[in-house]
Amino acid sequence: GLRRCLISMDIHHIEETFQEIKKTIQAKDTFQNVTILSTPETLHSIKPLDVCCMTKNLLAFYVDKVFKDHQELNPQILRKISSIANSFLYMKKALQRCQEQRQCHCRDEATNATRIIHDNYDQLEVRSAAIKSLGELDVFLAWIDKNHQGPSA
Amino acid sequence: AVLCISGGLPKPTNITFLSINMRNILQWSPPEGLQGTEVTYTVQYFIYGQKKWLNKSECRNISRTCCDLSVETSDYEHQYYAKVKAIWETNCSKWAETGRFYPFLETQIGPPGIALTTDERSISIVLTAPEKWKRNPEDSSLSMQQIYSNLKYNVSVYNTQSNRTWSQYVTNHTLVLSWLEPDTLYCVHVESFVPGPPRLARPSEKLCVRTLKDQTSAVKV
């Protein structure tokens, strides 16, 4: 069967980095009635078999879209975001290698969940969408932590 | 709802969630300068991503400065906001609002249950995982271990005679401390720990037990 591709990176270091800027970032998000990750329809419906693909898709979402669209003026916060972005880049490449070894298969479930997230993002003005996505990093990191426990690939 | 002049009072302060084992209590301090006066408070809460603020009927026009929102925030994988305003005669404050509250990452994990048994040179420790808060005592229990599969325990042991303390992290629920001194009082306290973003910890009460007297020296007499 398809061997799960597990991220061996220390997610807790990223969680701690985000924890330091979370309150500030979330305070800038004034649209409380909208979420980007919409977890009940997306992350919470992902089966173990689709964890790798979903992780890869969401890392790409953050690296290729969110971090690029977000404009940060505060140098301390910018430093933390850059640190997180670099970690995501590293994880994205690791999962890319997994895909090349045909161990990160993408089924409709992960593809549909990813599309919901992109649709949510595109419905907001880009700066608001980026800050909201950053504010939901704790949800994504907690999901990675929960789903990528176990012996690494 | 009684109409009041909004902004006529300063806002309540220090509004935050105190969360232990998913029991989520909203708490705040009276507005500056109004301690001791007959101010009342009204609370609302919001589920992140939903459409509107919701009332908490048991926390309308209350005089205490806390409100149990455990039921309303029981889905620990959602995130929430809460807000409170002060009312005094015909004046009321603007809303004071919490940041985004994420029970799954922010709840404090209470200490485990601890049972100690001892013989001459060892102490056996049996830990029972803390339980998630439940609305009714007769509701089925959910262990915090079922929510946090990577839950660990930091066991600290203190030798009251040598004044030495040592600790170790364990994941399973039974632990035997060996090579101890006979007839010595040892005290143990345990803290639950979940790897991840830092969260406040709730150490257990200290539990002390004395190892038995060394039977071999007793026989020589």
TrEMBL record, chain A:
The gene is IL19. Disulfide bonds join 5-98, 52-104, 53-106. GO terms for molecular function: cytokine activity. GO terms for cellular component: extracellular space. It comes from Neovison vison (American mink). It is found in: Secreted. Keywords: Cytokine, Disulfide bond, Secreted, Signal. The keyword Oxidoreductase does not apply. This is Interleukin family protein. Its main location: secreted. GO terms for biological process: negative regulation of extrinsic apoptotic signaling pathway; negative regulation of low-density lipoprotein particle clearance; positive regulation of intrinsic apoptotic signaling pathway; reactive oxygen species metabolic process.
